[in-house]
Amino acid sequence: MANQTTKVRGAGTTARRTLTAAARAAAKRSARSERGGPEAREELHSSRTLLIERPDGWEDPPEPSAGEEPEQLTPGPVRGRRLLTAALCVVLVAGLVAVAVLGWQYREGRRADQARSQALTAAKEAAPVVLSYDYRHLDQDFARARGRLTGGFRDQYLKTTKTVVGPTAAKYHGVVKATVAAASVVSAAPDKAVVLLFVNQTTQSTQVSGSRLDLNRVRMTLSRTSTGWKVSAVDAL
């Protein structure tokens, strides 16, 4: 009796046995399909897997990340209407801004014209009061003049008339009378204006025989206040 040899079957033997079993199963299904008719052949075809190779250059589209929705394509007409609406809004806003700017410029121009007229009138009325005085009623004259002044110039006028002009006029019986010969506006803004005046000043005193006439040019600056236009500076030219 021959000795039986025990063979150890490894991974390769197991693979061959698996393939052999698969082949026998396929052969049996093929035989049944030939004997069994259409139903068996349909079962055979349904068990087969059809593989399609990917064409050259084909790339699968990227999968959307978590939480990211696929991009929705806006139809052409809808996008066009949106662009038209946005353009109309821009044009409307630009038009409103232009109207506002023009309106502001118009109002400022009107205010400047009014300031020019009002400041010129105020300068003509203030010059004779500020530049005139009489030694017989100096306090009243200087008080009336201060009513036409504003700001730091008012304080400066008070100090000058009290320390220089008043004592000199009282000592020499000085009388000064000013009249405006001509006036013109140099510049004007809604709250400030500069006026050039040609002033004739007639002076009498014990230091002068008769009367002396002085032809002066005066630049007067006026500022708008809550009580009207006031003189804020006077410069002799």
From TrEMBL:
Keywords from the named record: Membrane, Transmembrane, Transmembrane helix
The protein's name in its UniProt record: Mce-associated membrane protein
Region (Disordered): 1-77
Superkingdom, taxonomy of origin: Bacteria
Membrane-spanning residues: 83-104
Cytoplasm among keywords: no
Comp. bias regions, Low complexity: 1-25
Species, as recorded: Streptomyces cynarae
Compartmental location: Membrane
Chain intervals with Basic and acidic residues compositional bias: 31-57
Composition skew (Acidic residues), residue ranges: 58-71
